[in-house]
């Protein structure tokens, strides 16, 4: 009788062990499903130049590609330096941001914190002046107040470089052209009140200054770049996040490329989505008369236009933003995942560094 009892006890013990193992597997699986998702924090601006971010989020393209095991949380910013600070501090994981803040963030972190993984827009930046300011040539900027979104941002570097090229110096560097860094909505208010004389701003704010502020276009920044192409917005990722979750970054890039193509094929629907989101965030949408004109001033693209970023870096260095010795940008790009996505879709790859 003892042997059957021993055998029965062994069988019972085996069943118990298997049950515990299955329970453990079930518990482990739960941590990787939608009941406990990985959070991806996405940063972007309520600007037309960030249309891919707005459309990709609002249409649910990003979330669908990422799947139920990932929770996408958006945060909006006014300008790039603050957004890059959030990325470098680990507050956001993926960001749509201009080249100058991306370069500055890369240099400050000694190449550790971020990588540029795709482009998002080209162009869409204008220098608009107030008619009463009597600005017709660069020399007329002397003793004038010119606004841009934030010191050290992409538009700030462009404005300061333009002044430098025309032998003018900002007041904060001992010269006589006052640069007023402030958020885009406030720039419009100041412009309409006659408290600034001009502004170097992205769309839709440039067109709003023209239509609502009765301003005139002094300069379309595209005229300052070869072929009229220059990167306005890149997709940047926190390197630590990419190293930990390359599969998530890959899925995000698939959705980014899909979104850029959808915008190209559905411009009217895209404009409606972007305008609705800008209204939600800023409290006021773009007038129909403004939207079409502003949209035509830019291109939505996944091409990072790498040459223009390096030129932006040279300009920022010449202005004193990147230290006393010219920094190396070797490694700022990681375009392997983007090109893999493009190849899988039968699209031409982009040129990297």
Task: Give a written overview of the molecule.
With 353 residues, the chain is an alpha/beta fold. The chain has 3 domains: 1-30; 38-122 and 228-344, D-Maltodextrin-Binding Protein, domain 2, CATH 3.40.190.10; 125-227, Periplasmic binding protein-like II (D-Maltodextrin-Binding Protein, domain 2). It has helices at residues 2-30, 51-58, 61-66, 80-88, 99-108, 154-165, 184-192, 205-211, 239-244, 246-265, 267-282, 288-295, 306-318, 336-344; strands spanning 38-44, 70-76, 94-97, 114-123, 125-129, 145-148, 178-181, 198-202, 216-220, 231-238, 298-300. The strands form 2 sheets. A 6-stranded mixed beta sheet has the order 2-1-3-10-4-11, sandwiched between helices. A 5-stranded mixed beta sheet has the order 7-6-8-5-9, with helices on both faces. The radius of gyration is 25 Å and the shape is globular. The N and C termini lie far apart (78 Å).
């Amino acid at each position: 009788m003892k042997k059957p009892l021993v055998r029965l006890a062994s069988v019972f013990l085996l069943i118990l062990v298997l049950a515990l193992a299955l329970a453990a597997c079930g518990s482990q699986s739960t941590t990787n499903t939608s009941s406990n998702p990985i959070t991806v924090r996405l940063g972007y601006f309520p600007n037309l130049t960030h249309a891919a971010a707005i459309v990709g989020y609002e249409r649910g393209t990003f979330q669908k590609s990422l799947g139920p095991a990932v929770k996408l949380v958006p945060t909006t910013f006014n300008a790039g330096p603050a957004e890059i600070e959030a990325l470098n501090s680990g507050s956001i994981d993926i960001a749509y941001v201009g080249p100058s803040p991306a370069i500055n963030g890369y240099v400050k972190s000694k190449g550790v914190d971020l990588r540029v993984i795709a482009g998002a827009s080209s162009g869409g930046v204008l220098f608009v002046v107030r008619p009463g300011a009597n600005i017709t040539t660069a020399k007329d900027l002397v003793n004038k107040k010119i606004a841009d979104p934030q010191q050290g941002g992409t538009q700030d570097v462009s404005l300061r470089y333009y002044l430098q090229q025309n032998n003018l110096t900002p007041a904060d560097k001992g010269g006589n052209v006052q640069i007023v860094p402030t958020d885009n909505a406030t720039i419009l208010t100041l412009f309409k009140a006659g408290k600034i004389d001009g502004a170097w701003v992205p769309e839709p704010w440039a067109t709003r200054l023209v239509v609502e502020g009765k301003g005139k276009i002094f300069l379309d920044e595209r005229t300052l770049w070869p072929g009229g192409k220059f990167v306005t917005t890149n997709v940047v990722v926190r390197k630590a996040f990419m190293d930990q979750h390359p599969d998530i970054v890959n899925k995000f890039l698939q959705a980014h490329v899909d979104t850029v193509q959808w915008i190209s094929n559905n411009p009217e629907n895209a404009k409606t989505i972007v305008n609705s989101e800008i209204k939600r965030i800023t409290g006021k949408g773009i007038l129909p008369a403004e939207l079409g004109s502003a949209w035509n001033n830019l291109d939505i693209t996944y091409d990072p236009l790498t040459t223009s970023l390096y030129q932006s870096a040279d300009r920022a260095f010449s202005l004193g933003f990147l230290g006393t010795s010219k920094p190396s940008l070797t490694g700022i790009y990681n375009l392997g995942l983007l090109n893999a996505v493009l190849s899988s879709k039968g699209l031409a790859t982009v040129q990297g560094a």
